[in-house]
Design a protein that fits this description.
- This protein has a six-stranded antiparallel sheet with strand order 4-3-2-1-6-7, covered by helices on one side. The protein has a two-stranded antiparallel sheet with strand order 5-8.
- It has 143 residues and is of the alpha+beta class.
- It is 15% helix and 32% strand.
Length: 143
């Protein structure tokens, strides 16, 4: 965690969380909302996690239009727009309203459930570049 130096001030502990079951994916899709000045600008979804051979990540704008961006994992076939997308955007924007930039991660394992994952200011600990590189500059312009 040397890239995320702020964690060095936190006493290490073990946290055990309940496993979230998904109707389709195991583990459930990880929806990552990229927020700038309280507004979701981009969303990336990661699925088939914890297996580097099958993990996929796709990027979308806030209206669920796919965008051609890659971060660490290969792009997949695409993921259907979640029926709760508007609600997840509202939750993410509420959680991120006081930050210049933050990423809010949510899970939506069924049509009736939304779970909070985490919030972070450091995408991939700042260690994985976006492809194409111009996406980094696009994100920076939103800051």
């Amino acid at each position: 965690m040397k890239e995320e130096y702020w964690y060095s001030h936190i006493q290490p502990k073990i946290i055990v969380e309940e496993y979230i079951k998904s109707e389709r994916y195991k583990p459930p899709i990880d929806y990552k909302f990229m927020i700038f000045h309280g507004r979701v600008e981009f969303i990336h979804v990661t699925y088939n996690r914890f297996d580097d051979t099958t993990t996929k990540r796709n990027f979308y704008d806030r209206n669920w239009n796919p965008i051609n961006v890659k971060l660490h994992f290969e792009k997949g076939q695409g993921v259907d727009k979640p029926p709760n997308l508007d609600r997840m955007i509202d939750i993410s924007e509420k959680l991120g309203e006081d930050f210049e930039h933050i990423r809010v991660d949510l899970y939506n394992p069924s049509k009736d459930e939304i779970y909070f994952g985490e919030m972070t200011v450091a995408e991939s600990s700042g260690g994985n570049p976006f492809v194409p590189q111009k996406f980094d500059f696009e994100l920076g312009s939103l800051w």
